[in-house]
Design brief:
Layout lengths: L5 E6 L2 E6 L10 H15 L6 E6 L10 H6 L2 H21 L4 E5 L3 E2 L1 H8 L2 E5 L3 E3 L10 H11 L1 H10 L3 E2 H7 L4 E3 L4 H13 L3 H14 L4 H16 L2 H11 L10
Parallel strand pairs: 2-3, 3-4, 4-6, 5-7, 6-9
Antiparallel strand pairs: 1-2, 7-8
Helix pairs in contact: 1-3, 3-4, 4-5, 5-6, 9-10
Length: 259
């Protein structure tokens, strides 16, 4: 495609997926969701990728679903397929072996806010805004609510969902939706530094740890510790853990084996 709706770049262990529908506020059309799903599957199978950055071109990070396209869908079956596709993309981010960082340069609304909440880490420009405004159209943002509530908690999520009002980057940071709000001119450097730091770690430990974190987060305390303990044992028996311990004891830089 001469002007692809999703740009992909892999460099120094970092895969950057860039939403590229700036004239449409990077809305999640069926085509863009399909491209994202395919890109995530490709990244998951690429052992050279240590971390993923989800970015966007233009003034808006993502304004959610393509409202015109969604309104034109005819009947339950088509709508069910759309939301199933979107859910697969969001859960694909969570289940991806590599950590995913959202780089939010502009507004993130509805399913765009869901994208941010689904990522493992998120950094935003201080000018960014976050909202779940579906209620203003008579459509409660029920699927964005799944990721949002898991990031900011029930009351903070419901305030956004029930009111439809946006929150600024400082409020998003305070609520835990993003890790940090930084000056717009610092956003690229902030995300690049964190991506490079994560990319320097053992890819096998990253994958094991991310999976265990998401498994245990909704368990009760005893089950969570049992799950985490199993993960620690499995991790300790890997070649990377042996290399990491030996490197620490001999005061040298580890050379990860990826297993």
């Amino acid at each position: 495609m001469s002007n692809p709706i999703l740009l992909t770049r892999v460099e120094a262990g970092v895969a950057t997926l860039t939403l590229n529908r700036p004239d449409a506020h990077n809305t999640l059309s069926i085509a863009l969701l399909t491209a994202l799903e395919r890109a995530l599957a490709t990244v998951a199978a690429d052992s050279a990728v240590r971390v993923v950055v989800l970015a966007a071109n233009g003034r808006t990070f993502c304004a959610g679903h393509d409202v015109k396209e969604m309104r034109a869908l005819d009947g339950r079956e088509a709508l069910t397929a759309l939301f199933a596709l979107c859910s697969r993309v969001m859960t694909g981010i969570v289940r991806l072996p590599q950590p995913v960082i959202a780089k939010v340069q502009g507004a993130a609304a509805a399913a765009g806010c869901q994208l941010v909440a689904s990522c493992d880490l998120a950094y935003a420009a201080t000018s960014a805004r976050f909202a779940t405004p579906g209620i203003n159209l008579g459509l409660f943002c029920s699927t964005p609510a799944v990721a949002l509530a898991r990031s900011v908690g029930r009351k903070a999520a419901l305030e956004m969902l029930l009111s439809g009002e946006p929150v600024d980057a400082a409020a998003a940071e305070a609520r835990g939706l993003i890790n940090r709000a930084v000056a717009p001119e610092r956003l690229d450097a902030e995300v690049a530094a964190m991506a490079a730091l994560i990319a320097s770690k053992s890819p096998h430990a990253l994958a094991l740890g991310k999976a265990a974190f998401h498994r245990q987060i909704d368990m009760d305390l005893d089950d969570a510790y049992a799950c985490a303990g199993e993960a620690m044992v499995a991790n300790m028996l890997t070649a990377d853990a042996a290399e990491g311990f030996d490197a620490f004891l001999t005061k040298r830089t580890p050379v990860w084996k990826g297993r």
